[in-house]
Specification:
With 230 residues, the chain is of the alpha/beta class. It contains eight helices and seven strands, in the order E-E-H-E-H-H-E-H-E-H-E-E-H-H-H. The chain has a seven-stranded mixed β-sheet with strand order 1-7-6-2-5-3-4. Helix 4 runs parallel beside helix 5 and helix 5 packs across helix 6. The chain is globular and about 65 Å long. It starts with a strand and ends with a helix. The model has no long low-confidence stretch (mean pLDDT 85).
Length: 230
């Protein structure tokens, strides 16, 4: 089918602990390559339409797939994912929710970050590059496109910073997706290039400052800006 190179295999935790593997999604071939890097049986969040297919749906359920309803928050799927991780299971999911049409990272769903902080699981970012070329007719029947799987260092997401600030799910999602983007070539980073992530972070900081000023004015007290200006 193709040649595959795995980089960073040593980053995949081997111990029996909750591990959330987050991976980009470009093609139906992403999962077969991702399976090869997983050290133990796993569970995978899968759209319910796929699980309802005759024969195939039953087969993937036996392999550890469980349903999620797309288009709106699925509390049951989020809770089930969290419980699996708290029990020390390995869970694989695509934070983008569906395949990217142009193979660049698209905006991730906040549910993945919510699962990570609720379970306090180790998060392992994984980038798959090259699966978009598999089965393309113009490459020829006997072509063997090269696939690269890069595994990043595990980390944990926290809702609270060291100085006590509460981080929004949107910001946590940016952090999670940027870990994946950092493993991808620039042309694949899409919504999560360093410049775009920095721009959103700066916007959040401006909005937080404006909100602080608004609250200070409503209470008729000096805002942080006014205190600074004397």
């Amino acid at each position: 089918m193709s040649d595959c190179t795995v980089i960073g295999r040593e980053n995949m935790p081997r111990q029996k602990t909750g591990v959330l593997v987050t991976i980009n999604h470009m093609s139906m071939w992403d999962l077969p390559f991702a399976q090869n890097i997983l050290p133990r049986p796993y569970f995978a969040m899968t759209k319910i339409e796929f699980l309802n297919l005759p024969f195939i749906g039953g087969l993937v359920r036996l392999m550890g797939a469980y349903p999620v309803r797309r288009g709106k928050p699925d509390r049951q799927a989020l809770q089930f994912s969290t419980e699996l991780l708290k029990k020390g299971e390995l869970v694989l999911l695509y934070p983008e929710g569906h395949r990217s049409d142009d193979y660049q990272l698209i905006e991730g769903h906040s549910g993945a970050a919510l699962i990570a902080v609720s379970s306090d699981a180790l998060v392992v970012p994984v980038a798959v590059i090259g699966t978009e070329f598999i089965a393309r007719k113009r490459r020829g029947v006997f072509s063997r496109p090269k696939v690269v799987v890069r595994i990043g260092k595990p980390y944990r997401l926290s809702r609270i910073t060291s100085d006590g600030r509460k981080i929004s799910l949107e910001e946590l999602t940016d952090q999670m997706m940027y870990k994946i983007a950092d493993l991808l070539p620039p042309e694949y980073q899409g919504y999560y290039t360093p410049a775009k992530v920095a721009e959103r972070q700066a916007q959040r900081q401006r909005e937080a400052l404006e909100e602080s000023v608004r609250r200070a004015n409503s209470r008729n007290i000096k805002s942080p800006v006014e205190k600074y200006e004397g």
